[in-house]
Amino acid sequence: MPSSGALERLRAANSRTVVGLLAGEGPMSRADLVRASGLSRTTVSSLVAELIRGGQVTETDDRARPHKGGSGRPPVVVRLSAPAGAVAGVDVGHGHVRVAIADRLGSVLAEDHALVDVDAHGAEVLDRTAAMVRSLRGQCGLDVTELQAVGMCVPAPLDRRSSRIRTGIMPGWQGLLPGEELERRLGIPVHADNDANLGALAELHQGSARGRHDVVYLKIASGVGAGIVLGGRLHRGASGIAGEIGHVQVGEDGQVCRCGNRGCVETMVSASRLLDQLRPAYGEPLTIVQVLALDDDGDAGVRRVLSDAGRIIGRAVADLANNLNPELVVVGGTVGRSPSLVEGLRASIDRYAQPDTAAALEVVPGALEDRSELVGAVALAIARVAAG
Asked: Whose CA is closest to 316, among 236, 224, 235, 240?
């Protein structure tokens, strides 16, 4: 017969399982917790009741769908109680700054957005960003101590060792350490990462990759980047630039890339490059919004160019998949919304990846669209506060 100590340890482990499911999956019904945990209905009900009494879990007014589409009254949902305090998420894009204040579970309390020329004006953008954070904090009625951390998205690779932006993509930021500069202005810990990594984090927590463990998130916009999730954790690499798939060389004699190499994927499929390819056939400059609309309408020229772009990116993704064997590729970014591009990407993976690797790999569009970086920044701040 198990000792009382062994039973207590087993119950504590089961309680951690329930809390972990609620943390990773969000609000769930007791029946969903039974199915996901493998614990008995009686054990789950007892653990949830204990967690509610301890203030770690609360019932919500929301109700879950009946399992397998059954009829009857929808089951009550439980969720983790929000810890005290709040965090901020900051999304610095090439032409905008978005700021959100959220509770420790990621629910947004207030949000602001400004269109600015980011690339050329680093210090001024940081000043404005700090002012936006302070203003939103005041709107939420929070004092300085209640805002515990800031997650910051930067649209360029960050050297993990020096925290500097690694490329010349943002000339007005040279010599600046984005996270440290914003932290100095706010007096609050700031944790910075690049847009592809935070897009991956967002899709993992709230988007198309929820419940998955080995994922590649592609951001295809003004450039091409990837965020890599292995074993449920973001993989940044030794110097923080893992996933720079846009700088895989596909042609030794190609155009010179901003990274200093020639013939990188990005020189062939960036948004500006695609627009240049389409301009002669359409007689006037197109915007990405117009190109995506033409793609939806079935325009043959646009679909061809976007499909070809997907095939180029897919060749690099196939090589990555052969090495990492991910279960999911999530395609995001402005250009990544194109169905034709995703079709080309899938076709290249099927052609160039090992058959078993390709068969195990699902390709889906991102669920969060232009909010992915902001959601990821909030998630980064929450994770850093939780880690202490």
From this structure: 224
Nearest 10 degrees: Cα torsion 102, 153, 385, 177? -130
pTM above 0.90, yes or no: no
Q: What is the pLDDT of residues 329-340, one digit of tens each?
A: 999 999 999 999
Contact at 8 Å (CB) between 241 and 256?
no
pLDDT tens, 346-366? 999 999 999 999 999 999 999
